[in-house]
Design goal:
- The chain is of the alpha+beta class.
- It folds into 2 domains: 131 residues, no CATH class; 203 residues, Intergrase catalytic core (hpI Integrase, Chain A).
- The strands form 5 sheets. A 5-stranded mixed beta sheet has the order 5-6-9-13-12, with no helix packed on it. A two-stranded antiparallel sheet has the order 1-2. It has a two-stranded antiparallel sheet with strand order 3-4.
- The protein binds zinc ion.
Length: 390
């Protein structure tokens, strides 16, 4: 988030759109739109990437201003210098310090910055600006054996995209796993039914935190033979909504619809009995009555915003604190998806009427692969398995 208005500097401008959607662009100190940045960011309209890239890009554009570098004069070495100043391990002098007083980017922020800069300059090159740099950034590399194993039809791949700005890959034997017994220890220290719901649903359902915080009560079909007719057992429809009041949005965007109060489509995840149990415990014990009007599942339980939708950041904070109380160290929501993957390698808990899918099992290649065994039901509905097994 922008920390107030910085006079005399480029800044990110948030534009409120219809339906509580927000767009992000970069403006000059006087308020005029930075055309090059705006053109690039507009290609990410409606996606969370636009916000991330806007804040990464504005830092880079401010640096260009300080270095008095025009977009058509920037070279690969300049970008490497910039990445070095932002925290990457780059040999050679980088010039004057940058981002004084701010923490250097971590690994994933460096990856995101590298992707953002590559995208930005390749976009510029496509418009005829600094074509040479665009070509240098678009160079490819030969696939390794691990790449080929990982990719669909990997055996026929000849080249892969490479980003000379990205930090070198770290090969891990395992993805970031949850510590042993984390689910039960987190449940033991969770102080509210809502927090127990979050731990259980992340663990059993394999939700992303944005998906979970973006759920509406209408998305939950937690009984058999729900009226949508799309899944016989208890399940949840994960639907991408851009305008949720807590800004949480599902990353996946399969089409969904609401007809006569019944949700159909979206990404369908099955609900385990433990998920259903924690849901009822939360709804009967803590959910505001009368209903708060927004219809969202997860709400704040205390403070001035009590009853308002709960933001994904707040859920992350709850997990972090619960992890510390339970002596587990830092717990990130994404780690639950690796546990699910481990327990559910794509074959267990298959629903009748579904053809066996091809879960891409990736443990051992250092990337974790795709965690959701994707299947296509005969009706053509895409289902992500979300059944706790064992
Ligand atoms: Zn349904």
């Amino acid at each position: 988030m922008a920390r107030g208005l910085v006079v005399g500097d480029l800044r990110v401008q948030v534009l409120e759109r219809a339906g509580a959607c927000r767009s992000f662009t970069v403006v000059w100190p006087g308020g005029a739109v930075h055309e090059a940045a705006d053109g690039f960011l507009r290609t990410y309209e409606g996606s969370g990437t636009q916000r991330t890239y806007a804040f990464l890009l504005v830092d880079h554009l401010r640096w260009l201003e300080r270095e008095a570098l025009a977009l058509d004069r920037v070279g690969l070495r300049d970008l490497q210098r910039y990445m070095g100043l932002a925290g990457a391990k780059v040999a050679g002098p980088h010039g004057e310090p940058w981002r004084n007083g701010k923490r250097p980017y971590g690994r994933s922020a460096l990856q995101a910055a590298a992707a953002c800069l590559k995208g930005f300059y390749v976009h510029q090159a496509s418009l005829g600006v600094n074509r040479e740099l665009g070509e240098q950034l678009s160079r490819t590399r030969l696939p390794t054996r691990a790449d080929r194993r990982r990719a669909f039809l990997g055996h026929v791949s000849r080249e892969l995209p490479a980003n000379p700005l990205a930090p070198p890959p770290v090969r891990r034997r395992h993805p970031k796993m949850l510590p042993e017994g984390a689910r039960d220890r987190l449940l033991a220290v969770a102080s509210t039914a809502r927090d127990r719901l979050v731990v259980t649903w992340l663990s059993d359902g394999g939700f992303r935190i944005g998906e979970l915080c973006g759920l509406h009560l209408a998305d939950l079909h937690l009984r058999e033979d729900a009226s949508c007719g799309e899944c016989r057992v208890a399940h949840v429809h994960v639907c991408h909504r851009a305008g949720n009041p807590n800004r949480a949005a599902a990353k996946t965007k399969p089409e969904w619809s609401m007809e006569g109060g019944v949700i159909r489509g979206g990404l369908i995840k099955r609900a385990s009995p433990a998920m259903v149990h924690t849901y009822f415990e939360y709804l009967t014990g803590e959910y505001p009555r009368p209903g708060p009007g927004h219809g969202m599942l997860l709400v704040q339980l205390a403070g001035p915003g009590s009853g308002q939708p709960w933001a994904a950041d707040a859920a992350r904070g709850m997990l972090r604190r619960a992890g510390q109380r339970a002596g587990l160290g830092r717990i990130r929501p994404h780690a639950f998806r690796h546990i699910l993957h481990d327990r559910c390698p794509g074959r267990l808990g298959r629903e009748p009427g579904h053809r066996p899918g091809r879960g891409r099992v990736g443990v051992g290649d250092g990337r974790g692969g795709d965690l959701r065994p994707r299947r296509r039901a005969r009706s053509g509905v895409r289902c992500g398995a979300a059944t706790r097994v064992g």
